[in-house]
Amino acid sequence: MPLVDGFRPELILYQAGVDPFAGDRLGRLALSQDGLDARDGLVARLAAARGIGLASTPGGGYGSDPHPIAERHVRSILTLAAVFEARERTVDIEIRPRATM
User: Fold this and answer.
1) Fewer beta carbons within 10 angstroms: which end of the chain, N or C?
2) Inside any domain, residue 101
3) How far are the Cα atoms of 20, 24, 36, 51, 72 from residue 66, in angstroms, in the given order?
4) For the residues of 5-48, what is the DSSP string, one character each?
């Protein structure tokens, strides 16, 4: 990502809107849940790989039943968290001193 690498931010503010979901009455896009997950994962991996902090808010989602919208919000948060949790486990493993025999 040349723009991110050239600018080198300390923090990315990410609004993880779910209105691009297929069937959203205002979003007018057609992402599947897998598509939303892929988008969120991409943003999280981009930040984590570069050591950039990520702050995110859920948003958007327009329909008559708020429960599926809330589920998509939660899924975005969990997708972002999973990338950083995996990264922390990897970093933790890498920096632990090896036991000598």
Assistant:
1) C
2) no
3) 16, 11, 17, 35, 10
4) HHH--SEEEEEEE-TTBTT-TTT---B-HHHHHHHHHHHHHHHH
Number of domains in the chain: 1
Of 3, 93, 18, 4, the C-alpha closest to 47 is: 4
**Do the domain assignments include residue 74?**
yes
Q: How far apart are CA 96 and CA 67, in angstroms?
A: 43
Is 37 within the bounds of a domain? yes
Query: Taking the model in full, what pTM does it have?
Result: 0.83
In terms of pLDDT, which residue wins out, 36 or 99? 36
- For residue 80, tell me if it sits in a domain: yes
